[in-house]
Amino acid sequence: MHECGGVAEAGAVAQEEKLEKIALTAAIRAGNHIATRRRELAGRSGVVEAVATKSSAVDPVTLVDQESEDLISAILMEATPDASVVGEESGTRANGASGGELQWIVDPIDGTVNFMYGVPAYAVSIAAAVQGKVVAGVVLDVAAREAYVARTSGAARLLHVPAAATAAEHTVMKRELTLGAEGKELAQALIATGFSYQADRRQVQAGVLSELLPKVRDIRRMGSAALDLCALAAGRVDGYYEAGLNAWDFAAGALIAKRAGARVRVPDLDARSADNALVIAARGEIFDALTGAVEGGTRGEC
């Protein structure tokens, strides 16, 4: 467990720029595929059916999740043959017996339930980690055609992705993402969160939420951890917390939020949902108060 931070060495900047561009191109192509397939597969009711479940009966997988991950993995492994790809649906892939120091961390559709129902809040999330540290991240909001991008050597940015875009160079800069200090207290804060697919964990999370709700302005539950973290980076919420995430849920979004100026604490990249570790990110002035409210005090920061 650690608080994200750090700025890249000068010699790593070019590599980070390259990795960010590769990730953005892969995310755009996957996003185009996801949008097309949703139009093809949505039934008369507008719902895309699940083909399987994962951790519980309410944790669905669609054909498009797997198709998107296959497409992303092919693009990443062609561009970086010595890397490994860790994906939500297929585990770890590598061209050789094991990947090199570069590891891609991929969620092909973060917000699958939203995707199924046509709720416009689902994303492609791709992070590049070098020797266990995330150095570049991209989160593509498929429905909004917005890409959130960051690397440790630069500011977080929000990009527009035109309908005809197929690569990173086709995007249009909208703005840098910078969270200025607003002097907020927790009582004035809009907080995002998410819930587990496990019934017993949901009961615990409901208890935490019931304790937190009277202490904040309001709560938002959007259904995508990656987009929650990007909403913080964009100033659309003031904080976010959720327990029991996997690395592919938070790796890219956490870097984006950090580079926008948020304080961010995440588990190590080998964390799994079963560990039930807490991801927490917020404007600096409310970080400690939010952490204390959801877990009884800060711990595990560096």
Automatic annotation (TrEMBL):
User: Which sites bind Mg(2+)?
Assistant: E88, D107, I109, D110, D249
Catalysed reactions, as listed in the record:
a myo-inositol phosphate + H2O = myo-inositol + phosphate
E.C. code: 3.1.3.25
Q: Give, as one word, the top-level EC class.
A: hydrolase
Molecular functions per Gene Ontology: inositol monophosphate 1-phosphatase activity; metal ion binding
CDD domains (alphabetical): IMPase
Q: Name one GO biological process term.
A: phosphatidylinositol phosphate biosynthetic process
Please, which domain of life does this record's source organism belong to? Bacteria
Which coenzymes or cofactors are required?
Answer: Mg(2+)
Q: Does the keyword Hydrolase apply?
A: yes
Please provide the record's keywords in A-Z order: Hydrolase, Magnesium, Metal-binding
* Keyword Nucleus assigned: no
In terms of PANTHER family, this protein maps to: INOSITOL MONOPHOSPHATASE (PTHR20854), INOSITOL-1-MONOPHOSPHATASE-RELATED (PTHR20854:SF4)
Family to which the UniProt record says this protein belongs: Belongs to the inositol monophosphatase superfamily.
Protein known as: Inositol-1-monophosphatase
